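Example 9 (inverse folding). The structure is encoded as follows.
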């Protein structure tokens, strides 16, 4: 079988939904391919992006009463009204009927998926959703695992199956499309999560003010 390149499909703010899969306090300790501060910043940046563009959000956890732990409180606090699927044991979120029902209920076909850990909690539902006919966009820097070798092989597996790999910044830019579309709000989001971008904005302000 000859592999064909994944076709470029643009994210559409009217078709996208964000799935936060197993961002649990216990599992967070398994993330070693990003520093803790870097990973949490990336994750919250994606959350803020979802809020800015008014994207539907679905939260899910697996066996949260065990060592996996509860969902990260920052996510629950950011999306208090989002569907919250506490899976009793299914490792692949797509094996949980309530989770799939929540995804279907959005009426959207573009799934932005992030989770812990990348090769399991992200890859398994990604592959299942692709098989079910959804377009999948993996938020790579909002998904973490034990090391970069495991991460890279998981990325390759998902990409070959048809998923597109994005970081949160690229996701935001593709949803924004044009700086003339309320670009100041998006710029502020970037400044909040990217210190170099905040410096850029301050430099521009100083130039405008003639300082």
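The amino acid assigned to each position is listed next.
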């Amino acid at each position: 079988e000859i592999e064909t390149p994944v076709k470029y499909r643009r994210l559409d703010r009217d078709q996208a939904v964000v799935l936060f899969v197993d961002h649990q306090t216990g599992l967070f300790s398994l993330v070693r391919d990003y520093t803790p501060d870097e990973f949490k910043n990336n994750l919250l940046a994606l959350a803020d992006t979802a809020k800015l563009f008014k994207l539907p959000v679905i939260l899910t956890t697996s066996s949260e009463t065990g060592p996996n732990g509860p969902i990260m409180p920052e996510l629950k606090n950011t999306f208090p009204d989002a569907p919250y699927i506490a899976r009793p044991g299914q490792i692949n979120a797509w094996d949980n009927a309530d989770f799939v029902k929540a995804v279907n209920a959005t009426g959207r076909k573009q799934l932005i998926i992030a989770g812990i850990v990348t090769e399991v909690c992200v890859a398994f539902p990604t592959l299942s959703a692709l098989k079910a006919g959804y377009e999948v966009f993996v938020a790579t820097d909002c998904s973490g695992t034990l090391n970069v070798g495991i991460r890279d092989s998981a990325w390759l597996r998902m990409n070959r199956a048809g998923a597109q790999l994005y970081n949160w910044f690229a996701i935001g830019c593709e949803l924004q499309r044009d700086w003339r579309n309320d670009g100041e709000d998006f710029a502020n989001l970037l400044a909040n999560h990217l210190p170099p971008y905040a410096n850029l904005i301050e430099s521009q302000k100083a130039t405008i003010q003639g300082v």
